[in-house]
Amino acid sequence: MTRLAAWFAACAALSPLAAAASSDETYVRLAFAHPHPPQIVMADERALAADVNAARAARGLAPLVVDEELSRFALQVAERMARLHYFGHTDPDGVTFRDRLRASGIRYQFAAENLAYDQDEHDANVALLHSPGHYANIVDPHPHRLGVAVVAAGDGELFFVEEFAD
Q: What spatial distance separates the first Cα and last Cα of the chain, rounded to whole Å?
């Protein structure tokens, strides 16, 4: 499989009700090599949350609390990408991160989203940590809550979603 790591998507961050993401964000259409119905990968979700908090600890920052509401939101994003065979902060219908967040009813003053499409959790995490925009979201002092989801759409074809909010 061609590595489509975290750098594939630009990070989206929202400050108090203002979008920082570009208005020309697009998505990438995907064709899975070994497709199967979307499956949640809970072990990778736990590992991803632990890796986020390890990166924060290395910078002297407090760990983020895994939040059920944000994790459900992340799962909806990952499952939608898997089901519709796309990757990006904006879906094929033009619905953006900001649109989804607003519709969810999640309360926030700061929110950000990291996405990765990769073959395993370790490689996805490394890619996110080496992407300046994604790394900035991980070590930003504003969020206190984290939502994570990992969904497999095929063998070695995984969607990783990190949602951050204050």
A: 36
CB-based contacts of 61, cutoff 8 Å, min separation 6: 139, 141
Whole-structure pTM value: 0.85
Judge contact between 111 and 19, C-beta under 8 A: no
Residue type, 142: H
Name the residue with tokens 């979201």.
Answer: 137
For 97-106, how does the pLDDT look when each residue is reduced to its tens digit (9 = 90+)? 999 999 999 9
- Lookup result for tokens 């760990």: 63
| Residue 15 backbone dihedrals phi, psi, to 5 degrees | -100, -175
